[in-house]
Design a protein that fits this description.
Elements: H1 2-75, H2 78-83, H3 86-100, H4 107-132, H5 136-144, H6 147-226, E1 230-235, E2 240-243, H7 245-251, H8 262-265, E3 267-270, H9 280-287, E4 291-292, E5 297-300, E6 306-317, E7 323-332, H10 334-382, H11 389-420, E8 428-432, H12 433-450, E9 454-458, E10 465-469, H13 470-486, E11 493-501, E12 504-511, H14 545-555, E13 559-563, E14 571-578, E15 582-583, E16 604-608, H15 612-623, E17 628-632, H16 635-645, E18 649-653, H17 661-670, E19 678-683, H18 688-697, E20 701-704, H19 709-726
Parallel strand pairs: 9-11, 16-17, 16-18, 18-19, 19-20
Antiparallel strand pairs: 1-2, 1-7, 3-5, 4-6, 5-6, 6-7, 8-10, 10-15, 11-12, 12-14, 13-14
Helix pairs in contact: 1-3, 1-4, 1-6, 3-4, 4-5, 4-6, 10-11, 11-14, 12-13, 13-14, 16-17
């Protein structure tokens, strides 16, 4: 912009100067023309004066000659003739007069004067010659004839005519001179005025363009100071000539007082390799082209920090197209680079999570198939009528154990989802450490005994009481003990140790199993993370147990950590809890719960489920407790059964075809007989939102499948006890 204003201003100034020069040249040419006219008129006037003077002198010379003639004729003294030079001078003047009027308009008059003058000289010469010869009378006769007088009068008349013409010419020349002088004065005045106006215009244009250039320069300077990019300029030798504030800030270097090259002020390196990057200024000066920086270019600042930069360098050209300098523009892209790295990491994490999800689904299918095989085998055995009592008992225990395993898998999945959504709340109570360990061993002992492991327990004495969630901490301990049994070769050793260290209370499970590689430890507590299992350790689980255990311990204010010397060298999982959760006091005695009278234990229960097997099997179990069971497969059937049987308890599946469980429950509650009955939701959906919706529909309890009959009967007894107490 500044350069554009400079060029435009230069063009305007040159144009004004050219106009002024043209004006002065025209005026000078005009004045010179006038002066030439004056010169020509002056020459004409001078010639006229010469003609006038010569004619007058000729007339005077003729008079002198005439006086000499008369004196000689009257006195006969030769002295008149000897001293007179009039004839010779007269002849000379005649020749001069003819010369200066040759080719002019006055030539005719002067020719007549010359002719008359020659006649007069002839007459004078004749009388003198007659007088010398003694013919005085003849000479006097010629003299008295008045012929000479007539010649002189005619000459006088012609000379007067020339003088009059010269006077007129002189007057004309004076008028011309006056006119030209006035015209010259006017022209000079006009030219001076125009010149002054042009000078004023030139001054105005120069001041205006100068102001524009200054404003443009100031705007450019403000722009360079305010833009977010760093700007550096150099000369043709690569010496830095300008740094805007952003360049000073990013580069941590002010504009040096002494000339310095760009490469001395700014150290550009490859942020990946740390090698020096190509000098962009040198490249532009060499190739005279615009270049962009290569990827992963960073600026090494004086304090040793790195700034990721990106942008370009371009040549500045002079009027001849030669490179006169370089402008280098760059910006700090460290935040963007960090974002890119974060996105790359997120993508990598997403890919890892995707692979883990695939592995989890494959493992889930495997874990669900494993218990199904023995369950199906046990069912086939029970179909055999020749099966003895021990075999029947064994088959039932297999079904119970494997179905329990499947239920625990589902519980782990649900717990992990609830923790992820923040829907699990701990139920803190005072629990003896020994009872927690006992409950955990109830789950883990069968596997420990089956693999012939040696279990060693080191519990503090006297027994300790903990303020924890009994169910959740027991769940964590059983998970750790089960994992130790799974991942330890047959006949291994497992140590359960509880101890205080400073302000922490530690419960550790140490084994002699496969151990953990150091690279796997950071990912061990991630969802779906597993220690790599071999085919002979196919009880790998879903890979959510440790993640769930860690999150449950974190809810208690602690953390779960692992220590292992390496693969094949065993591992130790440590529950690290605050010591404030530990107490030496015994737990408070349990309060006896009022029991409902069992005088009439037979009650009518309506089971509504579109899964006929699930409804029938649950009905059989409840019938074993002496209950009357009615079964319906959908909502309308359930409402009809309500009218016919008036049940005291309704166990209702939510996911019914057509009229769902919520609608059925609302309809039941809207009827008079539905106000006091117990309404239990039994469904595969167990989220907090599902529980809220069930409560809003009128359900008293919400159980997620699978649920055993004992849990349902406990809810029924609790409901009846509450009604008995209130009555």
């Amino acid at each position: 912009m500044k350069r554009v204003f400079q060029v435009r201003g230069l063009y305007r100034s040159v144009l004004i100067c050219v106009l002024a020069c043209l004006l002065m040249a025209v005026v000078a040419y005009w004045i010179i023309g006038k002066l030439q006219i004056l010169g020509e008129d002056r020459a004409v006037l001078r010639r006229w004066r010469d003609v006038e003077v010569t004619a007058e002198r000729l007339h005077g010379s003729l008079r002198d000659a005439e006086s000499t003639q008369r004196g000689f004729l009257l006195t006969h003294e030769l002295s008149y003739l000897e001293s007179g030079t009039a004839p010779a001078r007269t002849a000379e003047l005649i020749a001069t007069l003819e010369s200066i009027t040759a080719g002019t308009g006055e030539q005719a008059i002067t020719a007549r004067i010359a002719d008359l003058a020659r006649q007069k000289l002839s007459e004078l010469t004749e009388t003198v010659e007659l007088s010398r010869r003694g013919d005085q009378a003849q000479a006097l006769a010629i003299l008295n004839s008045n012929r000479g007088k007539a010649l002189m009068d005619e000459i006088r008349s012609l000379v007067d005519e020339l003088e009059a013409a010269a006077g007129r010419q002189n007057a004309q020349w004076v008028g011309t001179v006056d006119r030209i002088q006035k015209e010259v004065l006017v022209d000079v005045a006009v030219t001076s005025a125009l010149s002054i106006l042009l000078l004023l215009a030139l001054n105005y244009v120069s001041r205006r363009d100068g102001l524009r250039i200054r404003n443009a320069a100031e705007e450019l300077a403000i722009t360079l100071r305010s833009i977010g990019d760093a700007v550096v300029t150099t000369d043709a030798q690569g010496y830095v000539t300008y740094l805007n504030p952003i360049a000073v800030e990013i580069g941590q270097r002010p504009l040096p007082a002494e000339p310095q090259r760009f490469s001395e002020l700014f150290k550009l390196i490859n942020e990946t390799t740390g090698e020096p990057a190509e000098d962009p200024i040198a490249t532009v000066l060499r190739d005279a082209r615009i270049i962009g920086l290569a990827n992963h270019t960073a600026l090494l600042r004086p304090d040793g920090s790195l700034v990721a930069v990106e942008d370009s360098a371009a040549p500045m050209l002079d009027e001849d197209g030669k490179v006169r300098g370089v402008v280098f523009v760059f910006k700090d892209i460290s935040a963007r680079r960090r974002t890119e790295l974060a996105l790359e990491q997120a993508l990598s994490d997403l890919q890892i999570a995707h692979r883990r999800k695939d592995a989890f689904l494959a493992t889930l299918a495997h874990e669900l198939r494993n218990p199904l095989a023995p369950i199906r085998n046990a069912v086939r055995l029970l179909e055999n009528e020749d099966l003895d009592i021990e075999q029947q008992r064994w088959s039932r225990s297999v079904i119970a154990r494997q179905s329990g395993h499947m239920a625990r898998l589902m519980d782990d999945l649900l717990d992990a989802a609830r923790i992820h959504r923040g829907e699990i709340a701990l139920r803190i109570e005072h629990v003896e450490l020994k009872s927690l360990v006992t409950e955990a061993l109830d789950i883990a002992t069968p596997l420990i005994e089956r693999k012939n492991h040696v279990l060693e327990m080191r519990l503090p004495e006297p027994p300790l009481t903990m303020r924890v969630d009994r169910v959740r901490l027991s769940q964590v301990l059983s998970n750790l003990l089960t994992n130790a049994a799974k991942y330890t070769d047959r006949g291994g050793r497992i140590v359960l140790d509880a101890r205080s260290e400073g302000d922490r209370f530690l419960i550790s499970v140490k084994d002699t199993g496969i151990g953990v590689d150091a690279r796997s430890i950071p990912h061990l507590f991630e969802m779906f993370g597993q220690v790599k299992a071999t085919l002979d350790r196919s009880e790998g689980g879903l890979g959510i147990g440790l993640s769930l255990a860690n999150q449950l311990i974190q809810l208690h204010g602690g953390r779960l950590r692992v220590e292992s010397p390496g693969e094949g060298l065993g591992s130790e999982f440590i529950i690290d809890l605050p010591l404030t959760l530990i107490s030496r006091d015994s737990p408070a005695p349990a309060i006896e719960t009022a029991q409902a009278p069992r005088g009439d234990s037979r009650r009518s229960i309506l089971i509504v489920d579109d899964n006929a097997d699930a409804a029938a099997s649950l009905g059989m179990l409840l019938q074993l407790s002496g209950n009357e069971v009615i079964i319906a497969g959908n909502g309308p059937e359930a409402l009809q059964a309500m009218q016919r049987h008036s049940p005291r308890v309704v166990i209702l599946d939510i996911g019914l075809p057509g009229m769902d469980g919520y609608q059925v429950a609302q309809t039941i509650r809207s009827q008079t007989q539905g106000n006091h009955l117990l309404l239990i939701a039994l469904t595969g959906w167990g989220d907090a939102e599902d529980k809220k919706r069930a409560a809003a529909a009128g359900f008293d309890h919400h159980f997620a499948k699978p649920v055993d009959s004992e849990t349902i009967e406990a809810a029924i007894h609790s409901h009846e006890a509450a009604r008995h107490t209130s009555s």
